[in-house]
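User: Could you write out the 3D structure of this protein bound to zinc ion? I've included everything you need below.
Assistant: Certainly. Input first, then the structure.
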Amino acid sequence: MRKVLAFDLGGTKFAFGVVAEDGTVLGSGRVETLAEKGAAQAVARVAAAAHQLLADLKLRPSDLCAIGIASPGPLDTVRGCVDGSPNLPGWTGYPIEGELSKSFGGLPARIDNDCNAAALGEYLFGAGKGKKNVVYITISTGIGGGAVIDGRLMRGANGNAAELGHIPLTMDGPRCGCGNHGCWEAYASGTAIARRTREALAAGRASSITGFAGSIEQVTTHHLFQALTQKDPLAVEIWDQSIDYLGRGLGAVINTFNPDVIVVGGGVTAAGDALFVPMRAKANGYAFPRLAAVCSIVPAALGGNVGVVGAAACAFEAAV
Ligand SMILES: [Zn+2]
């Protein structure tokens, strides 16, 4: 069975693994990115650790068919590098694709946006397996997206397609990390839900949420969920608003892509049915009925492996 080497680059950790063609992770590891020390040093460290993993697995680079790299965007896929990612300052222009290829005997390497890679991973090996049109959404610090349509990952003109978290929901909403106002993720990411909760508490609303957190400043979505299970009125109100924002964005996604399935991952999905049941109903309400009727909305299946497995999915594509 063919195997690839996969890298999942993040602002704090740089994970890697050897993945077989059926999606099985044969071995994996991680190093700290230490992004501020620069790309060259981080790539050298992760390459050394990956060489050790290959030695442990009794594999040589020539036993592999390609290298996949999942990275936060934006990317320059022509030069094979990060291009202005806020979490990787100073990495712009460093030829990570070429350098990792060189480290492993010239294996073909491909860098892809991490959410696009995750979409291909869930399509090939996860909750989208067997479907032709799969959109992946992650609801965590931000909201990210990726789309596989008619069996092909949508990369777009320069590799940055499906920045779905930056669909503007309003004209003049809260400021988003991208610099615009009113983006979907500025309302409905885990970070945004926690921020809206803290704002309501700071405005003087009574709630058990502060008690769970210790102080208003420490409130996260975890404390909101705790209060939600006790039917705290403010928690219920903020959660219902959040579900509405999520449903609006997903409705737009359904109308845009006409997917068979939307696979949803990220920390906020820990809420389980309390999220998925009302979110499906809202999304369907905001989408055209004919499109909503064929689209299921399901939890992601790859969990913590999604970065490495997604990068591997891209590598298998690059190897064909
Ligand atoms: Zn934005």
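The CA atoms of residues 121 and 310 lie 4 Å apart.
User: Perfect, thank you.
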